[in-house]
Design brief:
Layout lengths: L5 E5 L4 E5 L19 E5 L10 H15 L4
Antiparallel strand pairs: 1-2, 2-3
Amino acid sequence: MSEHYAYLAVHPRHVNLGCNHGAHLDDCGLLEGTGRNMRKTTVRTVDDLADPRLVPLLRAARQERLTALGRA
């Protein structure tokens, strides 16, 4: 089982910040997608990074992986 919990995909005009198991997280409406596991949010401006939901989401994604791996 993978330890990875988040990823960045860099594009010319935006960055996708995704959670590898985002479908299993309470994302407060931040993540997009319909896949079985992965979800992402699109960062288009620096101001998007100030979203107060972002840090708790990343912490929850990390905790989900630690728990799944039996390391929590």
